[in-house]
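Support reply, case 0932

Customer input (verbatim):
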Amino acid sequence: MRKYRDIADFLLSLFFCWVYIPHLIVYFFIEKKALNADLRNIQKNIQIRIPLFCCLLFALHNDAYFRTIFYYRIGFIAAFLISWYRPGCKYFIISQTAKIKGGLNSKHPYSTILNAGSIGENFTFRHLTTIGNKEDGSPDRPIIMNNVTLGANVTIIGKVKIGNNVSVGAGSVVVKDIPDNCVVVGNPARIISRNGIRISEKL
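Our regenerated output:
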């Protein structure tokens, strides 16, 4: 059933492709490495095989969350010029000062704020994610490394570093550093697995 829905959505995106001419023009003139990595995650999640450029059109038309990511990738000025008539999701906010590498994998990121200092490759996140500083204007923001996955309703605040290959369970609150290759859960978060070995360790 989902395959037929994706086919219908793709055909609609082709029919309305003229709406996205400004977006497609911008795409050809920007550095596309990170955005293409984002699109490859979308390719994996849909039930039809389409080229990357067609996947861009598909995502622009059918996914307001992706449009938010797209406008972040193309920069403030270009986004200001073309986002007004086909906006992203106003409940999904990405700080323009955050440095985010490619492979963003959003899973219905409603009511989500990404205000990290930097985020590495292949970052997966879900709804109700909050990443940012403890106080307005503070430069102390989280640093998130590669291959990090967050469950729903995760909060990461302050000057903390999340290591590579870390999974954070739903509802966790992280205010301290997490080493590589860990699974953490809870409020406050604690380590329950490190390098595939189950443990119980406070941060």
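We compared this against your earlier run and they match. Two observations from our side: The longest helix spans residues 2-15. The chain has a mean pLDDT of 94. Please reopen the case if you see a mismatch on your end.
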